[in-house]
Design goal:
Layout: H1 3-6, H2 11-15, H3 17-48, H4 51-76, H5 81-104, H6 110-138, H7 144-172, H8 175-194, H9 210-221, H10 224-239, H11 246-253, H12 256-275, H13 286-309, H14 311-314, H15 329-357, H16 363-415, H17 417-421, H18 424-442, H19 459-462
Helix pairs in contact: 3-4, 3-6, 3-7, 3-8, 4-6, 4-16, 5-6, 5-8, 6-16, 7-12, 7-15, 10-13, 10-15, 10-16, 11-12, 12-15, 13-15, 13-16, 15-18
């Protein structure tokens, strides 16, 4: 395959001023947010030495998300999406200030970490649907695959540099500087967002209500290809998400500096996959690619457990050796890189399915559903891995989770044949038709709207 076929497509950055601003501002903000994301569970682990409490931190984040994602999605379909994003950044700034003040105390309070984590998730539930539904309005429809890759690149750079920087800071100057740096990044983000043009809501936008939120859920349920993206990702991250155990893996393999490497390794793999992602724009079987990538994630996570903990992972701790085996750090990091690359491929194709097929009038509400799908799995997965570690050991929890991820992915693939056959070309044509029909209705014409039970686009319907 020629190198130019693998090269990153930068067309959206060249052609869209507003996308450049959003890309730059959110990239800086994401860097700071990732170092805080690493530091909060590390503080909890350091203060309590409890894997269960670190896992419960994720559960604390899940509760507000279950409600606020629907609120944020409904608001994103009714209000100026840019303004919602700015309000979210201001709220994040205030919450990071609270973390900084808590870190400056002689005895930082554990409850503050849990409260701020919950409030941060609530704000994210408002902001994230607005951000996800804003992006398709800033670029041409044909540029959405490249846009998804560029968004992955932005997040991968932040998630690679952020954990590495967090590890160095935690090992040298402590959590106070972590929160101070995060606080400073929001200034750059707000400056960029201030220059983005206003993005009005879709024509005849529906007022936020329980009815409008339910309408979004019904639409998602009527689309097999959307259900596939949600369920496959929830399965993969519920069983194969061992991040709550990273602090304990790091304590075994080398301390805080290793913690940063563990968090950074998946991002390094994802970054490598992103930089060689030119081929993704020529693949149209998006559902199939999501399934293959999720399976690869599970295999790599199972291997990570074995590499880090050796025979005790394979025997689920039943041999009595516990987690005393000396792990192989370089192999563990390599397998996390492979997992990160697989996750990036899955994320790109899920994002393309969402952005190229969901009509604009529902994009915010469906972004809320998407947020739940990629948040519920990791959040509950961290709780699950922490609980499992108490019974089968840390290594056993990681290995078993990877195996169950592969099994679950195969079962979902068999149960959702329409998802496997989904073709992106027909999906884009459907979205354009639905948007035109809705605009015509809003203008008073009699053109009918496509019914929500319209079958999932397949390769046959694309030809």
């Amino acid at each position: 395959m020629r190198a130019r076929h693998l090269a990153l497509d930068l067309t959206p950055l060249r052609t869209s001023r507003d996308f450049r601003l959003v890309f730059s501002g959110s990239g800086v903000s994401a860097l700071g947010s990732f170092i805080t994301y690493i530091t909060i569970p590390f503080q909890v682990a350091e203060m309590t030495r409890s894997p269960l409490l670190v896992g419960l931190l994720g559960l604390c984040e899940l509760v507000p998300l279950l409600f606020m994602a629907f609120v944020g999605g409904a608001l994103a379909d009714y209000l100026d999406r840019r303004r919602l994003i700015i309000y979210g950044e201001v709220a994040f700034t205030l919450l990071t200030g609270v973390l900084l003040i808590n870190a400056l105390l002689d005895k930082p309070q554990l409850w503050v970490l849990f409260v701020v984590a919950a409030l941060t998730t609530a704000v994210d539930g408002i902001q994230r649907p607005a951000m996800e539904s804003l992006i398709p309005r800033l670029v041409e429809p044909q540029q959405l695959p490249a846009t998804s890759v560029l968004n992955s690149l932005r997040m991968n750079i932040a998630s690679l540099a952020g954990p590495a920087l967090a590890g160095v800071l935690l090992a040298t100057v402590g959590s106070t500087w972590v929160y101070a740096i995060d606080l400073a990044t929001f200034a750059a983000s707000l400056a960029c967002l201030a220059f983005v043009r206003t993005v009005p809501p879709p024509p005849a936008a529906e007022r936020p209500s329980l009815r409008s939120a339910v309408a979004g859920l019904r639409y998602a349920r009527s689309r097999p290809e959307l259900l596939g993206t949600y369920l496959v990702d929830i399965n993969a991250t519920f069983f194969g998400m061992p991040q709550a155990l990273y602090p304990f893996v790091a304590m075994k393999l080398g301390g805080p500096a290793v913690l940063g490497l563990l968090y950074a390794a998946p991002s390094a793999g994802a970054l490598l996959a992103t930089l060689t992602s030119g081929w993704t724009g020529r693949v149209h079987r998006h559902g199939l690619m999501v399934v293959l990538a999720a399976g690869a994630w599970g295999v790599a996570i199972a291997g990570f457990g074995v590499a880090a903990f050796g025979p005790s992972a394979l025997t689920l701790g039943l041999t009595g050796g516990g987690d005393d085996h000396t792990g192989i750090l370089w192999l563990a990091l390599l397998l996390l890189m492979i997992a990160g690359g697989a996750d990036m491929i899955s994320g790109v194709f899920r994002s393309v399915i969402w952005n190229q097929t969901i009509p604009d009038r529902l994009r915010g509400r469906l972004a809320g559903v998407e947020m739940l799908s990629y948040s519920i799995g990791p959040t509950l997965g961290n709780v699950e891995s922490g609980i499992a570690a108490r019974f089968v050991g840390t290594g056993g929890s990681i290995f078993l989770g990877g195996v169950l991820c592969v099994v679950g992915t195969g079962a979902l693939a068999a149960a959702l044949p329409q998802f496997l056959r989904y073709d992106g070309r027909a999906g884009l044509a459907r979205k354009i038709a639905e948007d035109e029909a809705w605009a015509a209705r809003a203008a008073g014409n009699a053109l009918p709207e496509l019914p929500p039970e319209h079958p999932a686009p397949t390769a046959a319907s694309a030809t």
